Automatic annotation (TrEMBL):
This is PRD15 protein. Keywords: Metal-binding, Transcription, Transcription regulation, Zinc, Zinc-finger. GO terms for molecular function: zinc ion binding. Residues 186-212 form the C2H2-type domain. Residues 38-152 form the SET domain. One of its GO terms (biological process) is regulation of gene expression. Coiled coil: none annotated. The keyword rRNA processing does not apply. InterPro entries: SET_dom, SET_dom_sf, Zinc_finger, Znf_C2H2_type. One of its GO terms (cellular component) is nucleus.
């Protein structure tokens, strides 16, 4: 304590505690990369103050607008799985890797884009180009509309997933499943589509849960 000239363990009983000044909170790398015409909104607050975020347009975004590439870490295993986000993989140097984003400091804003549950709410399509993943708008996006993504047809085959959309009468219409040769597939009990990994199956099942 500089007032009484004593070195103390804890606060000074005579002059009281110090006034603590906190550093300014710096946004994560992912949040800093958000384009100026997009914004993040908290959609849900779960236990432990876990925020479920969505990306929304602040102005009209034209059709065929490309975003990317998606920034993440290449990994042979999926270390971070979120049922509301797409599972992404890329082909590099002859190997197939997950495009993983363990935390906000290792990715960009595209990690916040949630998957589309049906064709009506889909605004983006995900695809691979030159070893990178990009999102492109499939229709004009109006202000206050959430950006939601699903696989392009060719990328869905690469991901061994179904290119699924839901009709107005809520019938699920998947493309024919991709055949598996080396491993036993995970099979969806609702539509019999097959998937290479359990994580991809779980991501697919969210569509059926929404339909129910």
């Amino acid at each position: 304590c500089e007032d009484c000239g004593k070195s103390l363990i804890g606060e000074c009983k005579l002059h009281g505690p110090l006034i603590r000044a906190k550093d300014r909170v710096i946004p994560s790398r992912a949040r800093l990369t958000l384009p100026h015409y997009l914004t993040l909104r908290v959609l849900e607050l779960r236990a432990g103050n876990q925020q479920i975020l969505g990306v929304f347009a602040k102005k009209v975004i034209q059709k065929r607008t490309q975003f990317g590439p998606y920034v993440g870490q290449l990994s042979t295993k999926l270390t971070r799985y979120d049922e509301s986000r797409l599972v992404l993989q890329v082909l590099k140097d002859g190997g197939k890797y997950f495009l993983d984003t363990p935390n906000e400091d290792c990715g960009n804003w595209m990690m916040f884009v949630r998957l589309a549950r049906n064709q009506e709410e889909q605004t983006l399509v995900a695809y691979q180009h030159c070893g990178e993943v990009y999102f492109t708008t499939v229709k004009p996006i109006e202000p206050h509309t959430e950006l939601k993504v699903w696989y392009a047809a060719d990328y869905a085959k690469f991901m061994e997933a179904s290119a699924v959309f839901i009709k107005e009468e809520s019938d699920v219409c998947p493309l024919p499943p991709v055949a598996k040769e080396s491993v036993d597939p995970w099979i969806c009990s609702s539509c019999r589509s097959t998937f290479a990994t359990f994580a991809l199956l779980e991501s697919h099942q969210c569509i059926h849960k929404d339909r129910v």
